[in-house]
Fold each of these.
Amino acid sequence: MKTISDEDIKATILNELPRVTSFTLKKQEPDIDTPLQEIFEVEDIAEMAQALFSHFGTEHSYFDLTTYFPWKTPGLFSRKPVIQDKAPLTIRMFVESVKAGRWLYG
């Protein structure tokens, strides 16, 4: 069986997700522990996950986006801290799951 590197998996994830830029058009690329919900829409993550799981043949029956969405974001002018009731979804979680051959966080 071919060994898959973390970088190969991460590159596949970032390739499947849409490009996001800041107001100054600087490319925003999440690091391995950034909550993906803070940058991407649920539909984008769902499409990426499906493509990733099928590309690497990962068992994903326990992967459920309702565990991670809806993600609360602060209001534009709010200083009140946001209290999340959903778990963060990160690139590290996808990398570890692909290497294990199944979704580990269900």
Note: The longest helix spans residues 42-56.
Amino acid sequence: MPKSLAERLGFAPTDRIAIIHCDDIGMCHAANEGAFEALASGPATCGSLMVPCPWFLEAAERARENPGIDLGVHLTLNSEWPTYRWGPVAPRDRVASLLDADGMLPRTLLEVAKQALPDEVEIELRAQIERALAVGVDVTHIDAHMGTALVPKFVPVYARLAAEFRLPAFAVRPDPVALAARGMGGFDSVFAAAVELLEKVGSPVLEAFDADSLEFPEGRGIEHNTGRLERLVPGLNYLICHPARDGEELRAVMPWGAHQRDFERSFYGGEAGRRALAERGLRTLGMRPLRDLMRGRSAG
């Protein structure tokens, strides 16, 4: 019987392994502060950079200063905030279908899905990866900001980039029941299409993910996030968080969520988070071992 992905990485079949992933690094200075604090202290294990964003270069500098931190590219096709916006990395005349009326990336996934051409999406996403590499980031993986790169017509692009750069791309085996419980009913076909293409190019596929980040009221952070940990299943689980340091900048960027991001900074970068994982017998892992596995290197 073939070994599971967890077993190929040296874990027992029953181990529950958390890949604790810091999204949105480079989005703003507060996001950089929060993410690198969490990644330096743990239990956060990896994160990804938003290359089109204004604070990407600061994040890249910190990545170069901390080469042991597992950092990927958070492939970005939208710009969601009311007044804090960003445009594409590629020349605008080559990705015109990715621009809104303000000359920025569209705000929502639905807008991107409706107007963006796959050929231009490929130009932009390749430009994001190439820019990260050009400024010295040791890119360990790719994933999709707000799921935009996983729109069905873009999935072949996502898989081609994983194959071209030999980078594991975020994907999980679809569980319709689990997806429905998280308000993502119907997404199983999206993940199934991604899994099929990514497995063909040798990108490792995870057992489960938890994107239930930020959805908790003030004062309920411990309860919410320990609940997330308790739901993790045997095998590799991709648990998303959005750590950032609360303050005037963060609150100016976003109309909601600053408190939650600050809590995730302290929980996934502090003793409370480490203790919560230990009490539940959870193991942790970054993305570099998956890149090594994809590239045919020893996972040990």
Note: The CA atoms of residues 6 and 235 lie 6 Å apart.
